[in-house]
Amino acid sequence: MAVRNPRMKKLETNYLFPEINLRKHDFLSRNPHAQLISLGIGDTTEPIPPYITQALTDGASRLGTRAGYTGYGSEQGLPALRKIITEQFYPNRINHDEVFISDGTKCDLGRLQALFGSDVSIAVQNPTYPVYVDGSLIHGVSNIVYMPSNPENNFFPDLEKIPRTDLIYFCSPNNPTGAAATKNQLEKLIAFAKTNHSVIIYDAAYANYIKDPLLPKSIYEIEGAREVAIELGSFSKMAGFTGVRLGWSVVPDELTYDDGFPIRKDWGRVHSTIFNGASNIAQAGGCAVLEEEGLKEIAVLIEYYLENAKILRSTMEELGYEIYGGINAPFLWVRFSGKSSWHSFQDFLDKYHIITTPGLGFGVEGEHFLRLAAFSHRENILLAVKRLRPIR
Ligand code: PLP
Fold first, then answer.
1. 100, 129, 238: which to mutate for ligand 1, most atoms within 8 A of CB?
2. What mean pLDDT, rounded, does the chain reach?
């Protein structure tokens, strides 16, 4: 028999969603007719709009013809898609050779971690999207620094108190807090990374939810980022591609390891060795997302979820809840001082029949918070806010 990779044992049992399910089933056994509303899971709910769906369909149909059939493509991704991503998101900042198409940000994170090996030290925000830590543990990383990010520091770590690490994971707009970093904060982060010779892995999976024109949508809007940052982008939440699977990474030429070797070269090698490129159908859809018609469609989609967030946020504010996020992000982060996050979770379930996510699942700094996701049908959001209002 093969021996289990000891690194797998280091992963904490993922108790969060199983425990949520357990509590949900327990609740339903006591209340079999209750109509539960889920504001818990961060998955999209609305259909992919028609222009983009047609491009996916056409992409699939072409494969059924001799003239249109394609097999393996460029491991780095369709040149047309890399070009349109560059024009849309990084005009005059990034060259399309620095863009790598993938099957999504989560998958990119796992492969990126392979680039740096097990001896690296990493820093993550606390609370954090769990994949940065769990993926690193699978790769044997043990030196992990947690950077508290809470309302008291505007969800931006006090960098003077943070030790140097090789990698810094930073997510903006943030899952779970919904905070979007300001230009000034990113300038500090870049200066910190430069001083310490650290590489920032900037997760911009929710960048398209930023509506405030003063907030940067990409770290490359900040001077000096090309020398210190890798950026990850995703079609998942921007176009409803969570199931289609499509994303990208940007690794600028200037970014090197400590011996001066370009990281981009190794990244290309990883892509061709353990990936082989994203689905050609998904890439056909991705091109359509970034064409004029597709951009109009996704603007409507994103506006829909942001309006959901606004409805939740304004009602809860009016009711006196302490709320963060939900303006330039599809997540609301709600504080319940003095109450554990599981206690608040249970309250929401028992009183309002609403499923949320306990903040503790994202790290100890999440202990007194709940995360509410705005990915839901509008009728559920309206029903949820109706339930939250006290009966007069
Ligand atoms: N990054 C963050 C912060 C996320 O919240 C998610 C999905 O929930 C992902 C990445 C994964 O994105 P993808 O679907 O592109 O793998």
1. 129
2. 96
